[in-house]
Design brief:
The structure holds two protein chains of two kinds. Chain A is mainly β. Chain A is built from no helices and eleven strands. Chain A is globular. Chain B has strands at residues 4-6, 11-14, 19-25, 32-38, 45-50, 55-57, 60-65, 70-75, 84-91, 99-101, 105-110. Chain B is an all-beta fold. Classes of the chains: A mainly beta, B mainly beta.
Chain lengths: 115, 111
């Protein structure tokens, strides 16, 4: 009963390095999301994918790219990491619901530090 | 002004006491509301949805006041295990049905 699985759980990068955060869900959800959480800021949406084959920018997309590889997987890429991207990253998924009543289910996060 | 605002706390609560806190939202067109719970260094987890008529789940009661644009969460008979950060979440019905999170209210239940 995995739910939403994120890898890696921890990562330290040097400024300018690139990496991809992986996310997979086994709940057959249509919609997937990437958030970052910083102290005192709450969760902020980076990118989302309302359904397979579509992606859209959220509140803070600069410096990131995403790929909705298939219905299960949604990856987040940092092309050239910057210290300002030090954060905890959460992936989430939900049923596709036009009424907006479906809650989101979260993975347990990736703690990323950029030196 | 933030779209969803919460008192960050912490609310220090004696075990067995009642605690209540609010969350205000700025967009009057907001349609869906949730309370999530987040334990330290863990992922957010849905606590309850908030319905127009208000709803109760055990010791937890959520209310929605559309006229004043706030939602509330009340915890009765607080347990030590209720210590967490409570996130107010609003769906503002923008494209994609994206959720907007408040910064959270920290609750500390003490013996």
């Amino acid at each position: 009963n995995a739910g939403v699985t994120q890898t890696p759980k921890f990562q330290v990068l040097k400024t300018g390095q690139s990496m991809t955060l992986q996310c997979a869900q086994d709940m057959n959800h249509n919609s997937m999301y990437w958030y970052r959480q910083d102290p005192g800021m709450g969760l902020r949406l980076i990118y989302y994918s309302a359904s397979e084959g579509t992606t859209d920018k959220g509140e803070v997309p600069n410096g990131y790219n995403v790929s909705r590889l298939n219905k299960r997987e949604f990856s987040l890429r940092l092309e050239s990491a910057a210290p300002s991207q030090t954060s905890v990253y959460f992936c989430a998924s939900s049923e596709m619901d036009r009424a907006g009543d479906q809650p989101q289910h979260f993975g347990d996060g990736t703690r990323l530090s950029i030196l | 002004r933030k779209e969803v605002e919460q008192d960050p706390g912490p609310f220090n609560v004696p075990e067995g006491a009642t605690v209540a806190f609010n969350c205000t939202y700025s967009n009057s067109a907001s349609q869906s509301f949730f309370w999530y719970r987040q334990d330290c260094r863990k992922e957010p987890k849905l606590l309850m949805s908030v319905y127009s008529s208000g709803n109760e789940d055990g010791r937890f009661t959520a209310q929605l006041n559309r006229a004043s644009q706030y939602i509330s969460l009340l915890i009765r008979d607080s347990k030590l295990s209720d210590s967490a950060t409570y996130l107010c979440v609003v769906n503002m019905k923008t494209a994609g049905n994206k959720l907007t999170f408040g910064g959270g209210t920290r609750v500390l239940v003490k013996p």
